[in-house]
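Input (structure):
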């Protein structure tokens, strides 16, 4: 009994030490790189950034599981080993865009409007190019969207209400620009410091004062929305045939330090739920991966992108894939 108590005490000390370890420290980054070789960790966030500030960026609420109808589809024959939507549809500049959700938990809206914008261009053969407004979705699809929501809501809103155009903060692009500036989440880069989590903007059915567009005339609609349920080949087929999709995943603290390679988590320390855009796949050093666009600006990760292990539902990346077809 005495030995058992000692062992339990040592385990408790080890757990507490792991919890107290700063996951943004150089020591933690070195630890990640020492225990695996599929990806490289490095400095993204300033070492003194509080995890509570980072958790604000995780805008997928706990317990999320898409309720969208499952798409009945065939698996495409002869899918390529590597596929990059940026290269397959070079006349669609939105596919190459890395946006910045700022200090708002609006990833669920960003992953959606990014994929929707790409698909409008793809389905129109490049004749219709638009950046849909993350602000329109954030402010109107749910209440208090900066505190998080579900990706489903954005796609349902696209079909039922339509979404206007809108670019980054200060771009004066489209009907409704994003209301929060790109900011320095990270140690790298020259952007201004991020403010504390801002209040969700009020829903407005008007364009910005600087825009000459009329809100109701600028609405872009989806024809349908659906869930590509948990099948790696079906997900690849969907991207190959129709364009990028939105995925919701769980973020663990080690991903905050991602720089390159194929990410596989090394920790149980969960930060929160997050939505991203999946735009391709490939194989690197014999590891299959998904190619992901994040919404934390180009200073994070590999110029805003990351690769994550494909085919084993790493961090739930294959659990909640949502998409839809635009109405042109």
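Output (sequence):
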């Amino acid at each position: 009994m005495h030995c058992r108590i000692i062992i339990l005490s040592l385990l408790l000390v080890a757990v507490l030490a792991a919890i107290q370890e700063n996951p943004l420290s150089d020591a933690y980054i070195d630890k990640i790189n020492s225990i695996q070789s599929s990806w490289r960790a490095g400095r993204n966030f300033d070492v003194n950034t509080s995890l509570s500030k980072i958790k604000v960026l995780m805008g997928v609420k706990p317990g999320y599981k898409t309720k969208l109808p499952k798409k009945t589809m065939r698996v495409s024959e002869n899918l390529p080993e590597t596929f990059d939507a940026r290269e397959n549809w070079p006349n669609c500049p939105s596919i190459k865009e890395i946006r910045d959700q700022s200090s708002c938990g609006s990833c669920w809206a960003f992953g959606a409007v990014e994929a929707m914008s790409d698909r409008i261009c793809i389905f129109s053969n490049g004749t219709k190019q638009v950046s849909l407004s993350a602000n329109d979705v954030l402010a109107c699809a749910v209440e208090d969207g900066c505190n998080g929501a579900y990706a489903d809501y954005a796609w349902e809103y696209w079909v039922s209400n339509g979404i206007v155009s809108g670019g980054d903060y200060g771009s004066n692009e489209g009907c409704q620009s994003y209301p929060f500036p790109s900011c320095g989440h990270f140690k790298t880069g020259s952007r201004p410091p991020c403010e504390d989590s801002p209040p969700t903007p009020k829903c407005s059915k008007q364009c910005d004062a600087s825009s000459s567009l009329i809100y109701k005339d600028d609405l872009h609609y989806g024809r349908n929305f659906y869930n590509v349920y948990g099948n790696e080949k079906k997900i690849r087929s969907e991207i190959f045939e129709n364009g990028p999709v939105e995925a919701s995943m769980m973020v663990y603290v080690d991903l905050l330090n991602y720089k390159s390679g194929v990410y596989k988590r090394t920790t149980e320390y969960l930060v929160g739920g997050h939505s991203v855009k999946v735009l391709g796949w490939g194989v690197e050093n014999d590891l299959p991966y998904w190619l992901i666009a994040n919404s934390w600006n180009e200073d994070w990760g590999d110029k805003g992108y990351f690769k994550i292990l494909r085919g084993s539902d790493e961090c739930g990346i294959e659990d909640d894939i949502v998409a839809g077809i635009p109405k042109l």
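Notes: The chain is about 25% helix and 20% strand. Helices lie at 2-20, 26-35, 51-55, 85-88, 107-123, 134-140, 151-160, 232-242.
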